[in-house]
Amino acid sequence: MLALKFPVFVLAAFIFFLTGFAGFTQTTDDTRTQTGGAQTLEDILARQRGEVVDDQFRQDAIGNPDQAAPIARQLGTLGGVADPELWRAFRYGTTDIISTDPSPAGNVVIQDGGMRWLSWRNGPIRTYGGYLLLAVIVGLAAFYAIRGKILIEGEKTGETILRFRLIERLAHWTMAIPFVILAITGLSLLFGRIALIPLFGKEIFTPISIAGKFVHNYIAWVFMFGLGLSFILWVWKNLPAKVDFKWLIAAGGLFSKGVHPSAGKFNAGEKIMFWMVMLFGVIISLTGLSLLFPYQIYFFVPVLEAANSLGLPGLIGIAPFDTVLAPQEEMQYANLLHIIIAFIYIAAIIAHIYLGSVGMEGALPSMTKGRVETQWAKEHHDLWYEEVMVKSAKEPPAE
Ligand code: HEM
Predict the structure, then answer these.
(1) How far is the centre of ligand 1, averaged over its atoms, from the C-alpha of 273 (Å)?
(2) Which of 203, 308, 319, 327 has the most CB atoms in a 10 Å sphere around its CB?
(3) Distance between CA 47 and CA 62 in Å, rounded?
(4) Structure confidence by residue, pLDDT tens digits, 308-352
C-alpha cells in the first residue's frame, strides 16, 4: 500500500512544483490581473533590488465613491476610497483637494525629492566635503614641512609703508571674522549628529546647535556687508593685468626660494582668490537667503530661467532646463549648493589664512597694523612698491 502511495506522492509534489513555478514565471501583466491591478510580488522585489518600477498602471486605481456601500449597510461609512487609493490620488495629482495652508508649499502633499536630498546631504557631500578639508590641512602641513615659512629674503630695512587703510582693514575683518564663525557653526550643524553628539552627548550638543543656528543666521548679514564693502574697495586693483600671467607661470615663486615674480598691489594668486571670494560669496549668500526666507526668495528657478533665456543649455548641447520645481525642491537644491560651495570656499580660505599668517613672514601686519616692512613689499609686490614711491615723491607727506 505504502509502495503504491509513494509514486503518487512524488507525482503530486512534481505537479505542485510545476504549477508553483509557473505561477512565479507568469508575466507581470498576468499577475497584475490576478491582483486586481495592484502591485505584484515581482514589482515589490524589483523595487527592493533598487530597480525603477513603472507604476503608472496604478495611477487610475484611486477608488470610486459611487461604488461605496450604502451608509445603512455594514462598513458603509467607510466610503468608496481606501487610504492607499487616496494617497495614490495625491501622488498622481488626480485628487481634488483644497489646502488650508496658503503658503506656496501648502498644496504639495507628497514630494519624494526629500529623500534624495537627505541621502546626498548626509552621504557623498558630507563625506567628500570632510575629506576635502582634511586634504587641505594635510597638504598645507606637508607644504610647511617641505618649504617652511616663506621668509623675507633680503635684509630688512626696519621701515614700513602703508599697505591697507583703516577702512580696508575694517572691510577685511568684517568679512573674515563672520566667515570663520559661519564656517564653524555651519560645519557643526552638518557634522553635529555624527561628530559632536558622540563627543559631548545630546545634552551639551542641543544648546550648542541651537545657539549655532541662531548665530549662523544672524552673523551672515555682517559677512554680506563686509563682502560688499571689500568688493567696492578692491575691485579695481583686482582686474587682470599682463604681469599676472608671468606670475602664474612662475607659480608666484611659492615653491622655490629666491624667486619673486613681479606683482602690483595684488598678485595673480590674490586676484584669483578675490574673484573666488566674491563669486562664492554671492552664491552662498543667495542660497543662504533662500533658506532663511523659505518659499519667499528663490534661487534656482530664476537662475535656470536666465540660463534658458540666454540659450546656455543649447551651447553645451543639452535641452533647456526644467524650470518647474516644487517649492520644497528649491529649498533642497539651495541647501545642497550652499553646502558644496561652503566646502570649497572653506578649503580655499584655510589656504589663505595659512599664507596670511604662519606661512609667510611679514604678511599679517598688512591686515592688522596696515603697514608692511619695505623689504617685504619689494619682494612680493615690487610694482606696487615703486608706484607708492613715485606717488610719495610727488606728494611730500603732510606736516
Ligand atoms: C581669519 C583669518 C584671516 C587672516 C589671518 C587673513 C589675512 C589676510 C592678509 C594678511 C591679507 C593681506 C595680504 C596682502 O597683504 O597681500 C588678506 C587679504 C585678503 N583676505 Fe584675508 N585673512 C583671513 C580671513 C579671510 C577670509 C575669511 C576672507 C574671505 C572670506 C578673506 C579675504 C581676503 C581678501 C579678499 C583679501 C584681499 C587680497 C586678496 O585678494 O587676496 N580673508 N587676508
Answers:
(1) 9
(2) 327
(3) 21
(4) 999 999 999 999 988 888 899 999 999 999 999 999 999 999 999
Cα torsion at 299, 304, 306, 309 (round to 10°)?
A: -160
How far apart are the C-alpha atoms of 89 and 272, rounded to whole Å?
53
Ligand 1 binding pocket mutation candidate from 163, 341, 367 (most atoms within 8 A of CB): 367
Helix (H) or strand (E) holding 178: helix 166-191
Region of 293 on the Ramachandran plot (φ > 0 left; ψ -120 to 50 alpha; else beta): beta
Backbone CA torsion sign across 42, 44, 46, 52 = positive
The per-residue pLDDT for 22 is 45
Q: Which domains does the chain have, with CATH numbers?
A: 41-97 (no CATH), 114-164+235-394 (1.20.950)
Beta bridge partners of 360: 150
> Which of 42, 46, 14, 5 lies closest to 27, judged by CA?
42
What pTM was computed for the model? 0.81
Would you report the helix, strand and coil content of the chain in percent, each value rounded to 5? 65, 0, 30
Indicate whether residue 363 lines ligand 1 (CB < 6 A).
yes
Whether the CB-CB separation of 202 and 144 falls below 8 Å is answered with no
C-alpha separations of 157 from 153, 262, 338, 389 in Å: 12, 20, 46, 15
How many alpha carbons lie under 13 Å from residue 128 in its C-beta half-sphere? Answer: 9
Q: What is the 209 CA–ligand 1 centroid distance (Å)? A: 28
CB atoms inside a 10 Å sphere around CB 244:
21
